[in-house]
Each structure stands twice: as C-alpha cells, then as structure tokens.
Design goal:
By secondary structure, the protein is an alpha/beta fold. Helix content is 57%, strand content 8%. Helix 1 packs parallel to helix 3 (69-79) and helix 1 (12-24) crosses helix 6. The relative contact order is 0.13.
C-alpha cells in the first residue's frame, strides 16, 4: 500500500518531511488538504483519522498513522533507516533535535507573523511597520544562532546533509520569500542556503511551494479576512511583539481561531 502524506506545500513542517522522504527515496503520494475546511469527502475523513488535531502534515503507511512533523521524522528514521540522515553521536542527534525545535516554534512564529501582516493584512500603516521591524530584528538574532551552528562545517546536520538541514531550510526559505533572505551579515548561513537550494530534494519542495504560493497570490485580496489558526508559539509571538490589538480584532471578527475541540 502506498505511503500517503497529507500536506500543504507552504507548510514548513510538511516541507521538512518531504525533503527527508525525497532524500531517502521513499515513494509517496502527496495529498493536499485544507485542514480548516471540514468536509464529508472520504479523503478529508481519512485525513481526520490520521490527524486528530486536523493539522498537516500527517503520514499514512498502511495501517500506521503518524501526525506531527517531528514524530514523522522519527518514524521515517526507524522505518527506512538507510540512508541515515541522523548524526552519528547521541550528543549531535540531541543538538539537531534542539535545533529543529527552535525552527518549529520560535523561527516559524516570526515567519507566520510577517505573513499575517503582509499577506493577510492584519495590520496596516505604523502598526504594521513596527511589527515587521521587530520581526526583522528577531530574525537577525535567530540567524546569529544558525550562523554559529555552521562553524567548522558545511551542514546544520554535521558532516553531511541530513535531518538538521531539512528542518532548518524551509523556515529560512520562507523568510527569503518574505523579503528577509540571508545576506552578508551571515556569510556561512548564506553559503549553506545556496548549497541546500541546489539539492534535488530541496528543488522539488521549492517548486511545489512556489506553485502553491502562485495559486494563493492569484486570490489577491481574498487572503484578507480568512480564518487562521493561532496556536501556542504563533499567539505568543503576536502578543509579545506588540500585536495584542491584532489578536483582539481577529477574535472579534472571527478571522482568528484556536484549535477546534472535537468529540
């Protein structure tokens, strides 16, 4: 039975999983799903069975259903151990997991916030400018950390491309698409970004993301007013960065929602 990955091509969580699947040579079926658009369609119902929180990505491998991108990567490492994309030593594997956690929470939240302002028009004028300026400073600090990760090596994962690179690249790529590409302030990070972008696995996920973004942009102003899920790190980012009024307005007009409670 074919492996299925329920995903959205712009999700950094889905992108890191796909990079690993491509690197391992695992054949899988990509299934696009809109988690917020409940449906009685059998495909959507299969997605719900695989992802109780109705979040992407989730993976179906025969009778096995796995959700949460980090858990999926752990499953893939055990299910298809070769080629291994893990560092060799326990300490290095722990380092990569901590790096992945930072990208999944802190870094992703900054990207999310910038997109909320620029694409979904949560704020305009001076309010928007202040939020984006603060986001840029936060990205600068996070890039300082990423640049240090590359001291003495070419890859986030250590000696060779691996899970650490797959976890970091999608977030850095999303920043670049939002106007915050790596620059001369972080030469090691910029060179790493170019090396990653040349890999076939990354090229494929980039192409898929660009096509999805093209479709989103064709909607134009339709992006404004869409209901979006704010959870944990995303909500924290908006509140601590000065967007309390953004959240209040979104709750008032129903365009900001939290995790739906299901039976």
């Amino acid at each position: 039975m074919a492996v299925k990955l329920f995903e959205h091509p712009l999700s950094p969580y889905a992108r890191k999983v796909k990079i690993v699947l491509y690197e391992k040579g695992v054949s899988f079926q990509r299934v696009f799903v809109n988690p917020s658009a409940a449906s009685t369609d059998p495909v959507y119902q299969e997605f719900v069975m695989a992802s109780p929180r109705r979040e992407v990505p989730c993976l179906v491998d025969g009778d096995t259903r796995v959700f949460d991108s980090t858990v999926i990567l752990e499953y893939l490492a055990e299910r298809w151990p070769n080629p291994s994309l893990q560092p060799n030593s326990p300490s290095e594997r722990a380092r990569v997991r901590m790096l992945e956690e930072m990208m999944d929470t802190e870094y992703e939240a900054v990207n999310w916030g910038i997109a909320e302002i620029r694409f979904f028009e949560r704020a305009v004028g001076q309010e928007a400018e202040q939020l984006v300026t603060r986001a840029g400073l936060q990205l600068q600090r996070l890039r300082n950390r990423l640049d240090r990760e590359l001291e003495g090596g070419d890859w986030m994962n250590g000696e060779t491309f691996g899970r650490g690179d797959a976890a970091v690249y999608p977030c850095v790529a999303m920043s670049a698409s939002l106007g915050f590409a790596p620059d001369e302030r972080h030469p090691k990070l910029r060179a790493w970004f170019e090396r990653c972008a040349a890999r076939e696995s990354v090229k494929r996920t980039d192409a898929e993301a660009q096509e999805a973004l093209r479709r989103e942009l064709e909607g134009g102003a339709a992006a404004a007013g869409k209901s979006r899920q704010y959870r944990d790190h995303r909500l924290e980012w908006m509140l601590r960065t000065g967007g309390f009024d953004v959240v209040r307005r979104g709750l008032d007009d129903g365009t900001i929602r939290f995790q739906t409670e299901f039976e």
